[in-house]
């Protein structure tokens, strides 16, 4: 049994805006006489938009109307309507996520994106999505090596590294092609950290200066060197720690990175020489040369990326969706639901029955508005309650801790990592005499601060598509 759902990925980046449409094929991999085991078995991109410069009203404001017009036209070219889509993601990335009206832009796009498309931003998620779009996770699995991807965009460089297909760490640096802009032969903008980086090496550049190719290439060489330091190919210098976006953390030193792929707009420029170095109004082409010529990267393997400039949008359109199924319980009429905040119960609290119920109560209090509980999802591992008796006990603890939700207007939503959702949902239905809607899904990992979308059932009702995301805007 196979079923296809349609997904869209929309990436509004520092330099470019683009989108893709893809087909995700769901199949039951279990035999006829076993519990259904349904997975996404194929992902196919069937439409790629043109690549547009992200329209801005100013250095601090995105032109939401023009972004929406770009996306509307591309929907028409693809022959798709918002209601055709079951899942996907809108990603505002890099420097663009720091614009004053990033939230408002997402609201403007919500009616174009379909009922189940989510709006996400955040350097950790962007790093993983671009790496998956570049194929670095697959390479790490096939080669049995630790493979990192550096997605070098206009405003940031997002890094994620994998071992045997499993992500081991992410980081994001303020290094990108549009952190120095050039107009009419003069420097029109310099990102403060990049100006300080230049000064630390005795290079004085100011807004209004003539754009000297030789001088700006030297700055780009130091930017490339900082990327090598982020992978520990070279030992980080005293300036390095200040380049992480929002005072973020560097990658862990272990496991040692053995290979790298490059994606993003700058990586796309690395594939072909450009004579007109300022043709894009920035130093992206010079940065591409500097990274390509950086001797530090000769110390490790370099693999070609499956995608370069489209890596993030491909990741957004094909890697944000998971499926939960076969052992779940849901109220069909309540789906789809989207942008539900997640309350994650720690394993320490989950292991202790008294602490579990109390942690749920305290957590719910944080999500109250004017004394009334808001709609949310309660997440936990489920690994401490696996027998029938333990699950009955867990149902009673959920009843105790989530009493205010049960008495409120919203369904009780539980997100569990272990495969106990159906049994737990049945136990709760019995305890509540089926007077409360319960949505209980499993096989999904979520953390406090995440938001979750649960789509309409597919595959004959056996599964629901799920997107977990973080609505974080760099500030």
Give the structure's gist in a few sentences.
The chain is of the alpha/beta class and 475 residues long.
The number of helical elements comes to 14
Report the biggest beta sheet as strand number plus sense, adding barrel if it closes: 7 strands, mixed
CATH architecture of the largest domain: 2-Layer Sandwich
Q: What is the typical, i.e. mean, pLDDT?
A: 85
Placed side by side, the strands forming the largest sheet appear as 16-24-23-17-20-21-22
Helix content: 25-40%
Question: For the terminal residues, how far apart are their CA atoms?
Answer: 46 Å
**Which class best fits the helix and strand makeup?**
alpha/beta
Q: Extract low-pLDDT stretches.
A: 471-475
Total number of distinct structural domains: 3
Radius of gyration: 24 Å
CATH topology of the largest domain: Nucleotidyltransferase, domain 5
Given this structure, which CATH class of the largest domain is correct? Alpha Beta
Strand content: 25-35%
Question: Which terms summarize this structure?
Answer:
alpha/beta; 475 residues; Nucleotidyltransferase, domain 5; 7-stranded mixed beta sheet; EutA; 30% helix
């Amino acid at each position: 049994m196979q079923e296809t759902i349609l997904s869209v990925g929309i990436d509004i980046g520092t330099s470019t805006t683009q989108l893709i449409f893809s087909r995700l094929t769901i199949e039951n991999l279990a035999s006829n006489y076993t519990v259904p085991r349904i997975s996404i078995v194929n992902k196919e991109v069937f439409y790629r938009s043109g690549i547009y410069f992200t329209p801005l009203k100013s250095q601090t404001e995105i032109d939401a109307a023009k972004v929406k017009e770009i996306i509307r036209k591309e929907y028409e070219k693809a022959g798709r309507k918002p209601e055709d889509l079951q899942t996907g993601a809108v990603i505002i990335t890099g420097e663009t996520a720091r614009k004053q009206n990033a939230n408002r832009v997402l609201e403007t796009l919500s009616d174009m994106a379909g009922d189940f498309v989510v709006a996400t931003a955040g350097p950790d998620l962007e790093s993983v999505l671009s790496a998956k779009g570049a194929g670095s996770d697959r390479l790490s699995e096939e080669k049995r090596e630790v493979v990192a991807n550096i997605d070098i965009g206009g405003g940031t460089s997002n890094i994620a590294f994998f071992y045997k297909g499993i992500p081991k760490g992410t980081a994001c640096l303020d290094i990108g092609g549009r952190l120095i802009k050039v107009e009419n032969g003069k420097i029109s903008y310099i990102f403060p950290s990049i100006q300080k980086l230049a000064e630390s090496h005795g290079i004085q550049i100011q807004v209004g200066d003539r754009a000297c190719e030789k001088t700006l290439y030297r700055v780009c060489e130091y930017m490339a060197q900082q990327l090598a330091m982020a992978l520990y190919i070279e030992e980080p210098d005293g300036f390095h720690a200040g380049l992480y976006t929002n005072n973020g953390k560097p990658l862990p030193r272990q496991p040692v990175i053995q290979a790298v792929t490059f994606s993003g707009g700058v990586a796309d420029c690395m594939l072909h020489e450009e004579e007109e170095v300022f043709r894009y109004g920035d130093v992206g082409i010079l940065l591409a040369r500097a990274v390509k010529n950086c001797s530090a990267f000769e110390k490790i393997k370099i693999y070609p990326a499956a995608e370069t400039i489209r890596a993030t949008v491909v990741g957004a359109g094909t890697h944000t969706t998971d499926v939960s199924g076969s052992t779940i319980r849901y109220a069909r009429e309540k789906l789809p639901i989207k942008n539900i905040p997640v309350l994650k119960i720690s394993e320490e609290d989950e292991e202790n029955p008294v602490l579990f119920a109390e942690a749920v109560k305290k957590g719910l209090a944080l999500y109250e508005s004017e004394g009334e509980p808001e709609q949310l999802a309660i997440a936990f591992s489920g690994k401490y309650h696996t027998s029938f008796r333990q699950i009955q006990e867990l149902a009673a603890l959920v009843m105790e801790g989530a009493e205010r939700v049960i008495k409120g207007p919203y369904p009780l939503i539980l997100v569990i990592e272990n495969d106990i959702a159906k049994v737990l949902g049945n136990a709760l239905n019995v305890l509540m005499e089926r007077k409360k809607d319960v949505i209980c899904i499993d096989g999904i990992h979520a953390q406090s601060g995440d938001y979750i979308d649960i789509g309409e059932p597919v595959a004959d009702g056996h599964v629901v598509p799920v997107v977990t995301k973080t609505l974080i805007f760099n500030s």
